[in-house]
């Protein structure tokens, strides 16, 4: 896949297959290569229209295992639409999505075991405490009771929700950031291999943000892959090793952070690829009183 304005993307898989098996040789004497590992997430031509208007237009993306990809783009660019199709929550008009080689739409149960998802505007059962919600979620996911209990306690502790749990706070009473954190806990509970998180840092306090970053780094170091969407360019630059820029439903750039930045900042690349509008002097003049 290649972007515009000279930003050429790599799929992350080209030339990155597993190393040749030690000592193994083909009959011709050439080293035998193990089959190239599947990308952690591979989107090919994902397309979706709403009322005749393309929200996602042949979105293709390949995310390698062990990587953390930031998906950025203007409001209404098609990020959420693409991510929801990628994880099996929105049926595409065309295209495919695979998680570690498993087709999300053809083999949904298998794919969903591999996927942890924090959707936009997550709707949670609200008349439960966070702990009760995670217990219910774990059992729905087929985890045994002991595993569910142990992971629930650990997630509540790490995400600093134990106090709310001890006070019996219901999810409906949670703050926006707490809701985000319990949503993350539901995404992590079944130990997925691929995390797709729509704006995970939004409304999360700085201390919890550090915890989240540590979780994501540990997750990718163990070979899992993460895609996050975000509007915060410095955050993406600090956190992600790969970036995709999407605008008007199309992928405009995709590659390593260095490839997409092309020597400038990510914000500069974003503005260059997406365009920007200056406000005319007379606009909103009435605000001045
Ligand atoms: N269910 C829907 N029905 C109709 N139009 C929709 C629906 N969902 C998304 N759209 C439209 O599709 C386009 C892409 O929306 P999407 O939510 O994917 O953008 P986004 O990049 O996630 O935006 P933001 O950064 O503002 O969250 C927008 O024009 C939006 O109005």
TrEMBL record:
Residues 1-35 are annotated as: Disordered. Keywords: Antibiotic resistance, ATP-binding, Nucleotide-binding, Transport. Residues 1-23 have a biased composition (Low complexity). InterPro entries: AAA+_ATPase (IPR003593), ABC_transporter-like_ATP-bd (IPR003439), ABC_transporter_ATP-binding (IPR050763), P-loop_NTPase (IPR027417). It comes from the Bacteria. Gene3D superfamilies: P-loop containing nucleotide triphosphate hydrolases. It is found in: Cell membrane. Residues 41-273 form the ABC transporter domain. This is ABC transporter ATP-binding protein. The lineage of its organism: Bacteria, Bacillati, Actinomycetota, Actinomycetes, Kitasatosporales.
């Amino acid at each position: 896949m290649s972007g515009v304005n000279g930003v050429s993307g790599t799929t992350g898989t080209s030339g990155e297959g597993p190393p040749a098996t030690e000592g193994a040789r083909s009959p011709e004497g050439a080293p035998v290569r193990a089959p190239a590992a599947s990308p952690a997430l591979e989107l090919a031509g994902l397309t979706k229209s709403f009322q005749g208007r393309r929200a996602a237009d042949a979105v293709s993306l390949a995310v390698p295992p062990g990587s953390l990809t930031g998906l950025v783009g203007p409001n209404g660019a098609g990020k959420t639409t693409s991510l929801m199709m990628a994880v099996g929550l929105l049926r595409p008009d065309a295209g495919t999505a695979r998680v570690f080689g498993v087709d999300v739409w053809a083999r949904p149960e298998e794919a969903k075991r591999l996927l942890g998802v924090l959707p936009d505007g997550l709707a949670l059962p609200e008349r439960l405490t966070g702990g009760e919600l995670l217990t219910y979620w774990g059992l729905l996911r087929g985890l045994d009771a002991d595993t569910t209990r142990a992971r629930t306690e650990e997630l509540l502790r790490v995400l600093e929700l134990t106090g709310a749990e001890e006070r019996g706070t219901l999810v409906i009473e949670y703050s926006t950031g707490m809701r985000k954190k319990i949503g993350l806990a539901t995404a992590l509970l079944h130990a997925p291999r691929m995390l797709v998180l729509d704006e995970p840092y939004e409304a999360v306090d700085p201390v919890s943000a550090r915890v989240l970053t540590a979780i994501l780094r540990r997750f990718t170091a163990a070979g899992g892959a993460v895609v996050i969407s975000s509007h915060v360019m410095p955050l993406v630059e600090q956190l992600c090793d790969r970036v995709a820029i999407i605008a008007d439903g199309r992928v405009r750039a995709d590659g390593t952070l260095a490839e997409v930045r092309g020597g400038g900042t990510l914000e500069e690349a974003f503005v260059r690829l997406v365009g920007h509008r200056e406000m005319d002097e007379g606009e909103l003049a009435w605000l001045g009183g």
